[in-house]
Structures are given as C-alpha cells and as structure tokens.
Amino acid sequence: VDLSSFDFKTGKMMPSKLQKKKRRLWNDPLNQNKGKPDLNTTLPIRLTTSIFKQPVTKVTNHPSNKVKSDPQQMNEQPHQLFWEKRLQGLSASDVTEQIIKSMELPKGLQGVGPGNNDETLLLAVASALHTSSAPITGQISAAVEKNPAVWLNTSQPLCKAFIVTDEDIRRQEERVQQVRKKLEEALMADILSRAADTEEMDIEMDIGDEA
User: Fold this and answer.
1) Residue spans per domain, the chain
2) Alpha-carbon distance 139 to 157, whole Å?
3) Of these four, 57, 104, 161, 193, which has the most CB atoms within 10 Å of its CB?
C-alpha cells in the first residue's frame, strides 16, 4: 500500500501530496517507468483494417546495407565423390526390351578416376548437361590423376580437360544435317505410304458401293 500521501498527524489521505508525487515522477528524466527499449528482433506486423495479419517485407538491398542476400541460400549442395559409379550398368531399351546401342564418345573425351569406362563417362556428361548450368570443361587440375579423391572437382564429369575446336563443330554440323536428311526422307516415305493406304481404302469402298 502506498502511504506517501497519508498524513499521520490528521490520519487522512492528502490528495495534494499524491499529485505532487505524480508530477515529480513525470518530470524526472531518470525515471525508468516512462518506457523500456524494445529488444525484440522479430519482424513487425502491419496493422490495417484487415482482420488477417499481413507480414512486413524485410528489404536487404539498400545501398548502405552490406547484407545483400541470405548466405544460407547461396550455399551449394555437397556432391558425393565418384557418384558417377552409380550409373554403371544402366542402359536404355526400346518397346521390345532390346538394349539400345549407346553413343560413341569423341576421341577428345578421356575418362579419369578409378574404374571409369566410356559408358559411365557418357552418362555422366549427359547428366551434367541436363542438371548444371555451368560450362562443361572436365577436370582441369592435372593433380587429379595422382589423387582424384583429393583434387577432384565434383561439379565436373570424370574426364580430362578438353577443348572443342572449330573442326569438331563443323563435323557435328555435318552429322546433324545428315540425320535431318534421313528424318526428312523417312517422314516423306511415311506420308506417301499413308496416302497410298487411304487411296486403296477409298477404291475398296467405291467397289463395295457399286456392288
């Protein structure tokens, strides 16, 4: 019970003393009851007329702000060493369950690492082309042949460093043109065959109607 405004002589409460005390506490700069610092680091909630809580967006791209992005989102996922070995023994097959012959690697692609073969290297290069946006250069470090478990670059397939020349590009363009020509001939033959079948069916239907 606060007895600071109680007059012990008269035995009564003195409102004037209570008002003086409140005025003194209000003008006191050292009074801790005026306010306390907010040490809460959570994002504030936008208070609007809506009944739902709307979160406030935290902007980190201010020129004076050194933190440009969340470092946790920039970390790359670790890669397992020699994960290409899990592709060994895998092969594609057609609808008749016959194994499709795999492509032949160019002479410039040479495998590196223990137990690596051309089939596994082909699958590793195809996987790198489809899953990575970085250029495929192979293992640039020469020390990878001595100790691949230490110097291996897991973001690149298990092959030696190679360079694609203009001659390689020209030969590949010729192969693409040959394949396109064969595809065009096959499509044209299919169209002619379908047209001939349709014509035969029409003739048979006309003969049936006349009979």
Assistant:
1) 96-163, 165-204
2) 7
3) 161
- What ranges make up the beta strands (E) of 20-74? 45-46, 54-55
Contacts of 88 (CB under 8 A, 6+ apart): 117, 119, 120
> How, if at all, do strands 12-13 and 54-55 pair?
unpaired
151-210 pLDDT per residue, tens: 778 788 888 888 888 888 898 899 999 999 999 999 999 999 988 888 888 777 777 666
Contact 128, 156 (CB under 8 A): yes
DSSP structure string for 85-114: GGGTT---B-TT-PBPPPPPPPTT--B-ST
Q: Which residues pair with 93 in a beta bridge?
A: 99
Phi–psi pair at 139, nearest 5 degrees = -80, 105
- CB atoms under 10 Å from CB of 176, counted, come to 10
* Torsion angle defined by CA atoms of residues 183, 185, 190 and 196, in that order, rounded to the nearest 10 degrees: 170
The predicted model scores a pTM of 0.42
Backbone angles phi, psi at 38, to 5 degrees: -90, 110
Contact 125, 138 (CB under 8 A): no
10-28 residue pLDDT tens: 777 666 665 666 566 655 6
Supply 93's token pair. 């097959």
Integer distance in angstroms from the first to the last C-alpha of the chain?
121
